[in-house]
Specification:
The complex is a heterotrimer of chains A (about 550), B (about 290) and C (about 350). Chain A has about 550 residues and is an alpha+beta fold. Helices cover about 30% and strands about 20% of the residues of chain A. In chain A, a hairpin with a 3-residue loop joins β8 (about 210-220) and β9 (about 220-225). In chain B, about 70% of the residues lie in helices and about 5% in strands. Classes of the chains: A alpha+beta (about 550), B mainly alpha (about 290), C mainly alpha (about 350).
């Protein structure tokens, strides 16, 4: 009797647990008031690695440094092409493009009250070159055209920089965090500059001239910035007093934070966009990026079939590009015809931007059959050799593309495995073994120039490239890359890139998949946001209303 | 023994749940709507292994439960019902393999340590202490990270983590039984150490061991699921419950079924083992029978 | 044996275990064919000089045995090395993350142990009655649930559908952390007299601590129940009853004290399990503790961090066991310290 009751109760409990988990389908509609009106809160992934501008090379560090420190020049809004005065008020360049003269802004103070002078500029540049960015190697950006003799102090508010080589992108370098100005007195008081050694104090602390200063940074938790009362740009107009950048690894946390209004901005993965899109008070806006998505093919794999151009062509036809765009990137990606992404100069040298390969299994079969790689009695090509596909653990888009590519390959009669590995293992595999065939990869720009794409992708190890260790090499392509790099003549450069494209696209060392868009989900009460790929997250511009 | 179960409703439920799970595992091929295909692939070591493949069809992705797909579909358009049912086999195989291997290792080492004592005991128990001093999830993570992602490697990682508790359990049992009179008697008639260990001591340690094994079958499943959740579990594309939850959790807000059904499958199986284990404990522990 | 002698002996015995822990962790994390230096330096884009510099620093070009001795040498000088993923000394990371995990674990135990004991007593007294069955069933469901699943469900229910608890983190936005003394926010904020921070810290602890402690609660409940039943069948309890003592006195004065011994053991052992289980709870509730730190270190092969983490946890765990053994002597005067 009693036992029966208990049984019923037990079942009831079970149902309750199930019901609790089902509650997901119930929608609640609530109007939220602006939370924390004087604070911008950004929920994102990844912690800064360092706050030292001389060693920072990652996005998360940049998000903080861009608002604490400043460079001689800056960008405004979404404009990536024009350089605006910042710590320098104006500048001029000599006829041989080697000597640059900058007039510096007067009456600028660091957040600790120290005056900003030409001393600090020279100190900052030399510091980068002497320290040589032991953790990240980012100093290469300055050292490609500067050395410690380059910077000369003319007077307290004039500085002259003589480049070691003429370099067209020089001003752009000064707009990156590695060119940002630190306070000489502060650094000298905390360890100074030691060659090839990081400055522990500068990694965790920051004193700059920028609009915000560091309140505190708790690793893997949050970075909190508060307004710098000394800021030369002043606090007229609309700004927030405080910025909180929160680190949250779990997507669910970031989604819920954005939905309940705790977060003003949140990093949301593609497959979760539908959770926030169309919700009250949330804006989901895509922005074009220069991030490209690629499949790397190993021409020196111990699976020798990949050395054959036909095999790599067939693989390029076997990839379902539209499915990658629609299913992995939920539509936020466009096709990539070759190395150079759309928006960069010389994009049109790649068959006018029309992709050479499309998803076409029949064509792929034909190529393989013609090359003599026919199916055996079991329906497998290449003597049932296994093609090994890899992607880095935790990347949901690459997981989708890998499993779907595997299915296409099976259709084609090619056996394959999909394996996911952590970066340390994957990098070892890629650079120290020949036990890999296909790896899903991505690339983002260091600077706004096609050379930053075509050279690492299809340039060979002979010219110091082959960044992905595919082993692919073509002497004409190498020649064209070098030619294009050192010429300023538009026509000549265009021809060189076109010649290279016509060669590499028919002997492809990689499958060029697409160029993805960044999504910046935010609350509709955030004003003043603009997407600038060269300097994202400039908190001074944003306010809530 | 079965009649004893009748006194305990909860253990009856446990037994029923486990029988259900075993039934599903055995008849999985007959119960599912979509079937995996198999491909023989070669590995880095030059050996071959058979992989299961589930057909991907993005057009069917994230369909809610209905007559076509009882538990809905996942983000690859695969039938969750079929994968959950299929996963029963994988999960049972995984926890049985881990617990049985760990038991064998633990019984041998613990038995030897407890029975022979002295230096051997000291060495074995110190090694056991080392393994027990590291939280099992972290140790399993480290081993799984070292081995790579596959079901076989999770098994290896969990065996490494699990054997020490059996060694300790058995050593304790042996120490208490060793001094019993019938062991003394066997020793006096000249039975060898190994014989005493296997004929007299082990059978008498059986019931606490059985309780521990039953409870651990569930615990292993939970830890395996935890490994998958962190991203150190089965290789992508396998119908493993933990992996399915881990992949489904990002779709929790728009496809509740994805994370719910594999979660329920784990809950039911683990609950079954725990209820059963508790029941066996109550029955075999004479002190609790009044 | 005197208590101090016993403690000293146990602490000395800790050393071989810790050496064993370093060997085990070192072997497991170094047998992997991997290139952590390239990963730390930034992947395929890394400058070759940077990679080489990190390899030198980590002695990665040397044989594993030599690497291990370098590590031991640093260790005896109390240098745990540098965490490359966090780019700061491992000791700094541990100093930040350990108190966070400790606070979470302590609160998980503060919630689960009393509830477990009370539930266990009720269950034992009302054996085979309805309340016994319900309590036991909840308890068994408690340790049959994947903890991350439970955490996700709680989060969804109480931070989103019925938003009464905070979603994540240790403090609300706008509340600043108290000046660090112990690293436990609740304690530090009380020391600083900052009641707002203390309230916020407690409020944020509620959901993760309950989630983390749920399985332990179940375990303790079961343990208390069965040892209560066992003790209540014992002769001296029957004698006490026969003497006409009230049931209340029998249970609380006589039975409970003895029944608590196995419960203490389980609590001590589950402390280690909680430290390990914290990995999953911390990930979901975004708790900046050692679990998350260890998980990312294991995946990113940040050797120094993995080693540092396991050492600290091993020490904590072994010390917890020592405390349990000492507690035995307090609860049950018949227990003699000795015989390890």
């Amino acid at each position: 009797m009693n036992n029966k009751k208990v049984g019923l109760l037990a079942i009831g409990m079970c149902l309750l647990m199930i019901a609790a988990s089902f509650s997901g389908c119930v929608e609640t509609e609530t109007e939220i008031e602006i939370k924390n009106p004087d604070t911008i809160v950004f929920y994102t992934i990844g912690d800064p690695k360092t706050l030292d501008p001389a060693d920072a090379y990652d996005t998360a560090s940049g998000e903080v440094i861009f608002s604490i420190y400043e460079g001689l020049i800056t960008y405004k809004g979404a404009d990536t092409e024009t350089f605006y005065p910042s710590l320098a008020t104006d500048w001029s360049v000599s006829n041989d493009s080697l000597t640059w003269t900058f007039n510096l802004r007067e009456n600028v103070k660091f957040s600790n009250g120290n005056d900003f002078t030409a001393e600090d500029v020279k100190y900052s540049f030399d510091r980068v070159l002497i320290m040589d960015a032991p953790e990240s190697g980012v100093s290469w950006i300055l050292s490609q055209c500067m050395d410690t003799n380059s910077t000369k102090i003319i007077d307290d508010y004039t500085i002259e920089i003589t480049l070691t080589d003429p370099y067209g992108g020089f001003l752009a370098l000064l707009g990156y965090t590695v060119g940002y100005i630190v306070d000489k007195e502060t650094v000298e008081a905390h360890g100074g500059v030691v060659a090839d050694t990081e400055n522990e104090w500068m990694k965790e602390h920051a004193v700059g001239t920028g609009p915000y200063m560091l309140d505190h940074w708790t690793h893997k938790t949050e970075v909190v910035l508060v307004k710098n009362e000394n800021y030369w740009g002043g606090w007229d107009g609309k700004h927030v007093d405080k910025v909180v950048i929160k680190t949250a690894d779990e997507p669910a946390t970031r989604i819920l934070a954005l939905l309940n209004g705790d977060a003003d901005f949140a990093y949301i993965p593609y497959e979760n966009l539908e959770d926030v899109e169309g919700e009250d008070g949330v804006i989901v806006q895509p922005y074009d990026s220069y991030d490209v998505v690629l499949v790397i093919l190993n021409t020196k794999s111990n699976n020798a079939y990949l050395a054959e151009a036909e095999v790599r062509q067939a693989l390029s036809y076997a990839f379902n590009y539209q499915s990658a765009i629609d299913d992995a990137y939920i539509g936020y990606m466009s096709r990539l015809p070759g190395c150079i992404p759309v928006g960069m100069p010389y994009y049109e040298t790649q068959n006018n931007g029309v992709p050479v390969y499309d998803y076409d299994l029949v064509e792929a079969e034909k190529i393989l059959d013609d090359a003599g790689y026919t199916e055996n009695d079991d329906g497998y090509r290449f003597n049932a050799t296994t093609f090994r596909i890899f992607y880095n653990a935790g990347n949901a888009e690459r997981l989708k593309m890998s499993l779907s590519f595997q299915q296409e390959l099976t259709e084609l009669g090619i056996i394959s495995t999909v394996t996911t590995e952590g970066w340390p293992q994957l990098l070892h595999r890629m650079f120290a073994t020949s036990d890999w065939d296909i790896i899903f990869m991505g690339w983002g720009p260091d600077y706004n120039d096609p050379d930053d794409y075509i050279a690492p992708f299809v340039g060979s190890a002979d010219i110091g490239q082959d960044t992905y260790n595919t082993g692919w090499k073509n002497e004409t392509v190498d020649e064209m890359i070098l030619k294009a790099k050192y010429t300023t003549d538009h026509e000549e450069r265009s021809d060189a890139y076109q010649t290279a494209f016509d060669i590499y696209i028919h002997d492809p060392p990689m499958i060029f998949i697409g160029q993805r868009q960044y999504i910046r989900p935010m609350r509709d009460w955030v004003q003043g946001y603009s997407y600038n790929p060269v300097r994202e997250w400039y908190w001074y511009d944003y306010y809530k209303e | 023994m079965l009649h004893l179960f009748r006194h305990s409703l909860l253990s009856m439920i446990g037994l029923a749940l486990i029988l259900l799970v075993v039934f599903i595992a055995i008849f999985a091929p007959l119960l599912i709507q979509e079937h995996p295909s198999y491909v023989e692939v070669s590995t880095d070591q030059g050996t071959t292994r058979v992989e299961e493949r589930w057909d991907i069809n993005f057009e069917n992705k994230l369909l809610p439960p209905g007559p076509e797909h009882y538990f809905g579909t996942d983000d690859f358009g695969r039938d969750i019902y079929s994968m959950v049912v299929w996963g029963t086999q994988i999960s049972l195989k995984l926890c049985l393999m881990v617990v049985l291997t760990a038991t064998i290792i633990g019984v041998i080492l613990g038995g030897v340590a407890g029975y022979f004592g002295g230096k051997i005991d000291e060495i074995i128990m110190r090694v056991t202490d080392v393994f027990l001093a590291i939280p099992y999830l972290i140790l399993a993570m480290a081993v799984a990270a070292a081995l790579g992602r596959s079901i076989e490697n999770i098994m290896m990682a969990l065996i490494v983590v699990w054997w020490p508790q059996y060694a300790r359990l058995l050593r304790g049992q042996v120490l208490s039984i060793r001094e019993n009179q019938y062991v003394e008697a066997a020793r006096s008639v000249g039975a060898s150490g190994w014989r005493i260990l296997f004929r007299h001591i082990l059978p008498n340690s059986f019931s606490p061991l059985l309780v521990q094994i039953t409870l651990d079958l569930g615990a292993v499943l939970l830890v395996a699921a935890g490994l998958s959740f962190i991203g150190l579990g089965a290789s992508p594309g396998t119908a493993e419950w933990g992996l399915m939850i881990s992949m489904g959790r990002t779709h929790m807000f728009h496809a509740w079924w994805y994370v719910t059904f594999p979660g329920l499958a784990i809950l039911i199986t683990v609950l079954g083992f725990n209820l059963l284990g508790d029941g066996i404990r109550d029955i075999t522990d004479p002190k609790l029978r009044r | 044996m005197k208590t101090w002698e016993y403690i000293t002996r146990r602490l000395i015995l800790l050393i071989p275990v810790l050496i064993g822990v370093t060997i085990l962790t070192f072997v497991v994390s170094h047998v992997i064919p991997a290139d952590p230096a390239m990963h730390f330096a930034g992947g395929p884009k890394a400058q070759p000089e940077t990679i080489e510099r990190i390899r030198e620093e980590l002695h990665l070009n040397e044989p594993v045995l030599v690497q291990y001795f370098y590590y031991l040498n640093d260790l005896v000088h109390f240098d745990l090395g540098k965490s490359y993923l966090e780019s700061r000394p491992v000791t700094d990371s541990l100093a930040q993350y350990f108190p966070a995990t400790l606070e979470l674990t302590i609160f998980a135990m503060l919630i689960s142990i009393p509830l477990g004991i009370v539930g266990g007593i009720i269950s034992a007294i009302r054996r085979n009655k309805l309340s016994d069955h319900i309590t036991r069933f909840i308890a068994i469901v408690g340790y049959s649930l994947p903890i991350f699943w439970l955490a996700l469900m709680f989060q969804y229910a109480f931070a989103y559908q019925i938003p009464i608890l905070p979603l994540e983190g240790r403090l609300s936005i706008g509340v600043s952390a108290p000046p660090p003394v112990t690293g436990l926010f609740v304690v530090d904020s009380l020391l600083a007299g900052d009641l707002e921070a203390c309230g916020s810290a407690l409020y944020h602890l509620l959901m993760p601590a309950f989630t983390l402690g749920f399985a332990t609660l179940a375990l303790i409940l079961r343990m208390t129940r069965s040892s209560m039943l066992e003790v209540m069948g014992a002769d001296y309890i029957r004698t006490a009853r026969a003497k006409g003592l009230s049931e209340r006195t029998v249970i609380f004065k006589h039975a409970l004290r003895n029944a608590l011994i196995p419960t203490v053991t389980v609590s001590g052992l589950s402390f280690g399990a909680l430290l390990g289980g914290a990995v999953l709870t911390e990930t979901i509730f975004n708790w900046p503790g050692m679990g998350r730190f260890a998980a990312s270190a294991v995946i990113g092969l940040d050797f120094n961090s993995v080693m540092g983490f396991t050492l600290v946890v091993a020490i904590t765990y072994v010390l917890a066991n020592l405390i349990v053994d000492l507690l035995y002597a307090v609860i049950d005067p018949r227990v003699k310290l000795g015989g390890v």
